[in-house]
């Protein structure tokens, strides 16, 4: 099983290439979504890595795929600025399970 990175960030592509991760540069939402759908159906891909900015562009499609429980595993990494939502994991779990906390 191989991993694939989908992002528009050239620096992250170069960094993960040094670790042996194959990458596809996606310049817009349509290209990102097309590649995401293609690689979710590719049998030898075990992990799809998305930068947070890429994830935000196709968030609904990614969450819908994650709920199927199928492979490949889809993971999100921070962009170079390190920004991600503070409660990203908690928010993801709430959306996945359909639970709303008091104050949401």
Automatic annotation (TrEMBL):
DNA-binding keyword on record: no
- Note the Pfam families from the entry: ATP-synt_F
Q: Which domain of life is it from?
A: Bacteria
Cross-referenced SUPFAM superfamilies: AtpF-like
Keywords attached to this entry: Ion transport, Transport
Coiled-coil segments, which residues?
Answer: none
Instruction: Give the protein family.
Output: Belongs to the V-ATPase F subunit family.
Indicate what this protein is called per its UniProt record: V-type ATP synthase subunit F
Q: Which organism is it from?
A: Peptoniphilus grossensis
